[in-house]
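name: query_chain
kind: protein
chains: 1
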Amino acid sequence: MDYLLVKPDKNRHRYVVGIDFGHGETSAAWCELEWDKSAGKRESIPHDVELIGNLKVIPSAINITPDGRCYIGKDAFHSDFMMDGAKMRVGFKQCPKEIEGESEQLMIEYMRSIYARIIEKVDKLQKGNHIVYIARPSGWTDDETKDLYRRMALEAGIPLGGLTSESRAAIFYAINRDEFKKNVLQGGIVFDLGSSTLDFTYLNFDDLDPIDHGYPCGASIIEQAIFEQLLLKDNGFSDFLKKYPMYKDAFLFECRKTKEAIYNRSDTNLRVKERIELAHTVNLDSLPEEDIDKYDVVLKLEFSNVNEFNEWLEQVCHYKTDIENAIRNYLNQWIRDKKVYGVYLAGGATRMNFLKPIIAEMFQLSDEQVKGDSEPSLTVSRGIALIGTADAITSVLREDLERKKTQLIEPQRLRSRMDKLVQDMAGCISETSWNVVHEACSDFKRKDLDKNLGVKDLETDIRMRLEKFTESGLLSVISGVFNQFFQCESEDVRMELNDIIRYYAPGQEIKNVRNEVSDISLDIQSISDICMKHTSGIVNKLLWAALGIFLFGVFSLIYQAIKFLIYKFKSEENRRKDICQELEKNESKIKSDIKSELVKKFLEDASFSNILSKELKSYLEKLIQYNIDRVRIPIE
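structure:
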């Protein structure tokens, strides 16, 4: 279904919208796509959307009346809108199974309503000028589920750009916070407690692959406990719901409001006194006359303080223990032996007063190392907007890099790079070949001075050494040239790609060329062997031909006869030095001629040229694609 997703276009899209369709609550944020600014000058500030009035977060609740009207948030359970035949649901988000399913269709209508509300609330958002990204629970990992969730958003009319996990969106937001960024440098965790799941994400900048995992111990367990252990055990409420089961979700919603009222207290030591009144939830006038007085009932919740409520909660559903077990499992099974230097709290449920002490104790951190935002309910939606912005920008970045790839492997450039390689190889062979001659001369000048050695002895030694060089030393020279050349090519590619990457995404630059080269499955030895096959047969011949121009005089009988009288009166050491000097004074000319001959022979060999250009193209394609793939795309 990816082909249905909206592709970021810097000529059309001006904004990114991130939506967190949470199991318990929903929020949204938007960012401006500052295409005309380099990365260092972009503000990348997420702006929250006030979905209802000035509220940035609304409950994930929906009511579709029999006449097709749709109410969301608190309005879903307004007494005037609850009627027979209405589909009233709270906490209806679930792992999708089939797009025509009841819960899936409700979710599609909810998505449609939320998106319409966003467009209504943000004047800057017009048709076609923005792209939307949404999050999924971290536990929804299989491709079929993710694909179905994308289809649901598309059916809701959302111009969807992509999907990411809620936990990754949360950590993407967290690492943009100065108070948490330094923890991630060494190792940090986002602790995201939502309505349905508790998600952990571990990240450090040495290993940019997040480790995330989710547990089914979301905060909706608490309102479910209030509903089952208190409200349903009240005879009045129990009887009412048996007779009018359509109101079940309405009372679940009241239990949720009660939970939030308990944990949102500024002073957790004060006495807890909360009430759930049936008459405030249901319009009693809509009931049969005999039920109006019968169901005028109230559920009172009274505890000495919030901690006593926590103790009750632990007794009835072991919620605190479940949180501790989840932390313990994540530590032991997912991030064993990894250092944790900070925890960032995300999700509205992290306001619960018993959480921070548990987290600090189990992760062995100080209170200062457990941080959170003043509005934790908005962490995920802000993170989605930011990560969506990054995805849109890196999508265009990848397009620019792909165009650059085409330029870097075009035939004309490859030909010039191949010419350089041939020049480098010929130059290195001529240099190392001369070193063979030079070593022979050095040995000739100093060894066995008690013997009377002549130029023929030097000639024999040079021939033997050159033959040995072509048999066993030439391959390593060719391999060394190729390795050095590919390393230089890698550095050139790195610099050219980084010029593009740096504009869009600083921090994503390619830094370690040597590791990148070693990761590419290209056998330099095999390439060298191929080249050796085409060069070994001519190198010795060429070298000796070039040397022979100058050695003829030294090794000829006429030369030896003329020099005999001169050398007759010189010491053996000086005589040998003179012989070598005659040869070595022509070093530059000999090396230049050898190089020229080799370049000519290499380039005239069509088979050699074809193999070399093919391997060079293959190498560059792999290297460039490797680096393009390293521009991490956080969206699925």
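note: The first strand starts at residue 15 and ends at 21.
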